Predict the structure.
Amino acid sequence: MEGTKFPFQKSASGGSGQTFLPLSRTIPWVIKWQPIYQAECEVLCSKFYKRTFTHLSVPQVEFVSEETLKKLQQFFSQRPSTNIPKDYHPILIEYKVGQNLKKACETNNIFSLSSKAWLTLFENLGEIAGYDLLIGNCDRFIPENIHSTKQAISRVNSGNILIEWNNDKALKTVHLIDNAPHFSSFFDVKEKRSRSSSSSSIGASNLFNNSQDSSNESSQDQSPVQNQIVLSGEQKRKNRLADLKYFTSAPKEGIQKIAKLIYKDIASEFTQQISQPDKLINSLEKGLTKAQLKMKKTKFMDELEAVKKEKSDWSPQATLLLNFMEEAINHLQEIQTTSIK
């Protein structure tokens, strides 16, 4: 690979890991380097979403084989400017074109949508927000502690979706990226070792053979942070489970409360005045209700068990996440059993 032009551009955005976007559309993968527990959690959640919510656009996310890992380590080590920590591990993420919500507002693309497209978009966002509770994720839309009478802690990250447009800038679809819990809101961020491992293979022979330019509007991007994890944060995980239980049993007024919290944070990204925000809040409610109903009716455990088999040696942190998801699904099964009776 000596003399080969580096076919990736390092992203400058984000806060967890280092992400490299392909410079050519012929390269189908984004390469994201991060501590192994973060890589495992992102693969785990993305695979679960992709299996379970087939009507949503979830980019494929894969571990790399040992052979590919060695190639990538060698390739990136030849470019000291990348500054990838030695204990970081790569995953491959299917490349999707799009803009995060903030960029969509800055470029005014979102404000050119038809009224119908606005409602469709916000219904999609509401549905996604509901499903995020299954993985304890407060790093997209639903803030922490919605079950509490205290003010929910807002930690919305609308950068964890990509909005893809048609050629005429009409809404095409919404892609779910960075599918994992907010790590400091799930584990407590402190110093600990990280591990190295790999699982299902995915070819990387086409990663290094093209250097043509491509669009750089994707937000599948993260920048490095120095954090490792200890097995703490038990109370935070209990709070996220309480949020799930609150959501699944919430009456209409509770769903309205959540929709208003989400809208408030999304609206902070707007660069123009929005007419009739109540209609957008209603669309969020509609999406949240759709997620609530699906979670009460769907059998999720088989999908989780299938994903669990992807690795035989999940890290302690990923194991905690698996345990959380299993407990969440068991709660849903109890609701389903009770409703049958």
